[in-house]
Each structure stands twice: as structure tokens, then as C-alpha cells.
């Protein structure tokens, strides 16, 4: 009976090391108003370039806020990143302008991301007024 209740060693499916994205931000602080920000999705970035190097490249093309390179790769095994620009007047023409970037002998590809965050929507505007009154009443009670 003692043999049945013994501890078993369990092998982990994932490695203990978690993958951490590479993030670089510029010194500018535009965190308050997200309605002026435009995010672009870049693929085919060189393996030797990190987020800080990409931030330096993008500073030549516009007002860049941050660059995020996720640790994972896309389904084709290529690295990708997201770059957030501020004060972009025409997102399509600026995207076409960014699509001309060549690093070394590699051309990077640019697209708008598939999912955009809601621009300029505040919490009070997103909730209907009757629900907002109910939430405020519950908060006053507690």
C-alpha cells in the first residue's frame, strides 16, 4: 500500500523561462490621449535588430512613441513588431510611405493591425446612461 501513495515526478510541458517582449519607447509622453495614436504592424524585420534599433529607424519617418517586438514569431516563422506613431494625418498614405523602408538589403512590410483600439472612447461615453446611474447608485451605497 505504501507504493501506491508515493509521489510521482511530473515533467513540465513548458520551459520555466518565459518569453519577454522587447519594448522601446521614446522620451515623449503621449499616454493621455490615445485618439492621436496610430499603430502599424511590421513584418520581415531583421533578426539582428531589436526594438531600440527599430525605434531609431522609425524616428526618421515620423513621430514614433514606442516599438514592441513580441517574443513569438508569426506562423511563417518571421519576426514582427508593432510601432505606434502620433499625429498621423492620413493613415493609408503614411503606411505606404513606411512600406518603402529598406534595412540593409531587406525590405520590411507594413500594414495596419487587424484589430485597432477604440479611439477617443471614454468610459462614461461607452456605458449607456441608465447603466451609469445604476453603477453610481451602487457605489454610493457601498
From TrEMBL:
Keywords, in A-Z order: RNA-binding
Superkingdom field: Eukaryota
PROSITE patterns the record matches: RRM
InterPro entries (alphabetical): Nucleotide-bd_a/b_plait_sf (IPR012677), RBD_domain_sf (IPR035979), RRM_dom (IPR000504)
Annotated RRM domain residues: 38-115
Protein name (Swiss-Prot/TrEMBL): RRM domain-containing protein
Record bears the keyword Ubl conjugation: no
Gene Ontology molecular function terms on file: RNA binding
Amino acid at each position: 500500500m505504501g507504493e501506491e501513495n508515493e509521489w510521482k515526478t511530473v515533467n513540465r510541458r513548458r520551459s520555466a523561462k518565459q518569453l519577454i517582449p522587447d519594448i522601446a519607447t521614446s522620451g515623449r509622453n503621449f499616454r493621455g490621449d490615445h485618439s492621436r495614436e496610430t499603430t502599424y504592424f511590421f513584418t520581415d524585420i531583421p533578426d539582428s535588430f531589436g526594438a531600440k534599433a527599430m525605434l531609431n529607424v522609425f524616428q526618421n519617418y515620423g513621430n514614433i512613441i514606442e516599438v514592441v517586438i513580441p517574443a513569438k514569431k508569426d506562423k511563417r516563422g518571421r519576426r514582427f513588431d508593432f510601432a505606434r506613431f502620433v499625429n498621423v494625418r492620413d493613415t493609408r498614405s503614411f503606411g505606404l510611405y513606411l512600406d518603402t523602408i529598406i534595412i540593409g538589403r531587406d525590405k520590411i512590410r507594413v500594414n495596419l493591425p487587424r484589430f485597432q483600439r477604440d479611439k477617443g472612447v471614454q468610459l462614461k461615453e461607452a456605458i449607456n446612461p441608465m447603466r451609469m446611474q445604476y453603477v453610481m447608485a451602487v457605489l454610493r451605497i457601498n
